[in-house]
């Protein structure tokens, strides 16, 4: 069994784990991230890996980092929640460890993990949308991560959905993540509680009596109790989610969307409204198969598992001639979505359209 280390580098913590070939984490540790200092963050990564290496023999080391990773997967061009600006992360960590590391965007690593071992197992065309502070996203096309020409692909959180809308951290206005994220959900509930405290009694109760105390878990708890105000917040954010997914489907036509991030723990409270809005907004609705919209299965471990697996695959690709993705594709049975599509007869209108 070949082991690999995966490291998830976020704005507040470095989480590292030893992962086996089945995506199981057999050892794990966490360090807080000295986010303001790139050298200290890099040292925290190296320390965590070194500690795991004293007890485990691994074939490869992968880093999933919260930021824009360049197309050579070596430099962190920009990280919204870390001090990295055009930082040669791969080189700096390799110097400290004396070993090769593979660097990947954290959402890409999570999507890879979900497709290999989690909610999107068996699907080859997948979009991951992780709702947190903003939106993290990743695209898999035909089983491979799509990174774009410069490594910047998969940032739909900054697609403008409202002209002249809410100001976004990226400098533009009306970005999707200003309406559809963990932060947007919390802002929605607090705003409602400020405006209509008599309608937000349960939310305020759980939030310690003040709108500022209302958090994501508070809204989820109130909604699961059937609180109308909390349910309305999920309706609003879920609605934005479903519409955005329909736009993504118009561009990429994936078989499966995986929804991750803290808000996704609300499950159907969020996905119910999202699926309804998706079906309402989808171009050609009624005449095309509906993509699955699923909750991520690997939770906060997805970044560790994906970074480790990508690093292992990269090390095997250099060690052996046949590329690993092609070998997997041959061994893997046809994905369920394709089999469904084949089994289903063509809708009558399409058959008519094809006739001369
Ligand atoms: Zn933006």
What labels would you give this structure?
single chain, 5-stranded mixed β-sheet
Mean pLDDT equals 90
The helix count comes to 12
Structural class, please?
alpha/beta
Sheet of most strands: 5 strands, mixed
Distance between the termini: 57 Å
Quaternary structure annotation: single chain
Give the low-pLDDT segments: 326-331, 338-348, 350-356
Coarse morphology? globular
- Based on CA atoms alone, the radius of gyration comes out at 21 Å
User: What ligand species are in this complex?
Assistant: zinc ion
> β content, as a range?
15-25%
Task: Tell how many strands the DSSP assignment holds.
Answer: 13
Q: Could you give a short description of this structure?
A:
The chain is α/β, with parallel strands linked by helices and 356 residues long.
Annotate the secondary structure layout.
Layout (H helix, E strand, L loop, with lengths): L3 E6 L3 E7 L5 E8 L5 H16 L6 E6 L2 E2 L6 E3 L6 E3 L1 H9 L4 E4 H12 L8 E6 L3 E7 L2 E2 L36 H14 L5 H6 L9 H9 L3 H25 L3 E5 L7 H14 L10 E4 L6 H18 L4 H8 L4 H8 L4 H7 L2
Parallel strand pairs: 1-4, 4-8, 9-12, 12-13
Antiparallel strand pairs: 1-2, 2-3, 5-6, 6-7, 9-10, 10-11
Bound molecules: zinc ion.
